[in-house]
Amino acid sequence: MLNYKAKFSRLRPSLFIFGLLLFSLLAKAQDAGEIQVYGSSTTPKYMTIIELHSNYTFKGPKSNEEYHPLLETIEITTGISKDFEFGFYIFTYNNNGKLQYTGTNIRPRIKAPDTWNWPLGVSLSSEIGFAIDPMSNQKDWGAEIRPIFDKTIGKNYISFNPNVGISFTNKEYLFEPNFKYAYASYPKASMGFEYYGNTGKIFNPNKISQQEHAFYFVVDLFLHPLYEFNFGIGKGLTENSNGLNVKCYVGRRINWKHK
What is the second-level CATH architecture of the domain 2-255? Predict the structure, then answer.
């Protein structure tokens, strides 16, 4: 029996990598309504997090600087087991006072167990769903593969999400890297920056001016264990990026096992 346990222990990293590949097959590119760099931790078992993501564009790209949509996204995530969670998204779009439903995603995520003692936090998130163009009402089915690597060193936190966005409709594979650095300047707050990019097709990237690159100054508050808050002001760095954007999300945790 001990030999079987030892063999299984050696096989666990291989099984985890196999799980990553399996989720990659299920893998929607992150909608602009949900601007977030993920950490590797998953939602604990018996807990659900309900989040509202808000994103307002004060200044659109150079080709359409009067573009001012308000995007609202509801995200509900439940912990299924110690290292596995399942999320659900509802996307909306509001421009000139007209609220539109613009799609739904589901998102499973698996994490490398802490008992493996890896030097980095590692997990894989994958989304699949559809988006509705608010202008043409055309539906685009797509997916996203989001590997997540993060690390806390003292008061410093870094996270890297090298995302791959997939459009089943257009048969395109896009590279959309995200990065976050935060410094815990206070016991219940941190400040830092987040980067969001879209270079276009993985094997045929766009010209720099047609790529999307934006930096956000962000603040995270940890005022209560059951609540989360993130606020950011972002500026686009290329002609194809939104010139000025503000994003915010608030979340509430619900523990179904304990009061």
Answer: Beta Barrel (2.40)
